[in-house]
Amino acid sequence: MTATCTLPVVSNHLLNYLPRLEYQWFIENCTPVELLFGETLNIADEAIKYVYFPVTGCISLLIEVVEKQSFAMGLIGNEGMLGATLALENSNAAMKSIVQSSGRALRMDAAKFNHRLESNPLVRKLILNYLYVVMQQLAQTGACNNAHEVKQRLARWLLMTQDRTHSDHLQLTHQLLAKMLGVRRSAVTIAAGYLQQQGIISYNRGQISILSRAGLEQSSCQCYFAAVNSYQKTSAIYK
């Protein structure tokens, strides 16, 4: 029997949608861990060992299109979780996942999480509803990568990162952003330079500061707002 404990204040929205008893079970059966910048959490087509519920920081979902070139298809922060595809009864990761911004998370063994999914239909339903949101995000990113300029995509990615880190100061190198967007580093340098000239961001040695949220939103494409609206509408399903 799991020992009782005083529940911490957890700002993971997905967990917060759970009924009190389920929320308590997850808190007591998760281990607090640090998410380290650049850390690989999952490899595509390899077994998922742990699921993660970010509290701070965020995780990127990457797919390789050619050797040594990848696109970031999704971003996970405290609105969701990494490993939700276990609800589809597939034990392997669909994409590579790396920590884009350092932070904290609650981690659970995949086997224990699977057992809870099997024994509690309500938890499975919640996770499947969240997966619907993720699928929309992936589809939106795929369309965005094909249709919009690097400047717009960079602005969108910075907005998504800020939403999940809740900070105006982001730890993002040009090299990492190039990997996220699937473009050459020089393309990111040009796009970031434009945003800096407009007074929207400042950049110094791998640190990006967002100076104007409104300016970043104006520079982004509609894909950012479409994803936000989708999440807000779908989150009503959780309640």
From TrEMBL:
PROSITE patterns: CNMP_BINDING_3, HTH_CRP_2. Residues 14-125 form the Cyclic nucleotide-binding domain. Residues 148-214 form the HTH crp-type domain. It comes from the Bacteria. Keywords: DNA-binding, Transcription, Transcription regulation. SUPFAM superfamilies: cAMP-binding domain-like, Winged helix' DNA-binding domain. Gene3D superfamilies: Jelly Rolls, Winged helix-like DNA-binding domain superfamily/Winged helix DNA-binding domain. The keyword DNA-binding applies. This is Crp/Fnr family transcriptional regulator. It comes from Pseudoalteromonas neustonica. The lineage of its organism: Bacteria, Pseudomonadati, Pseudomonadota, Gammaproteobacteria, Alteromonadales.
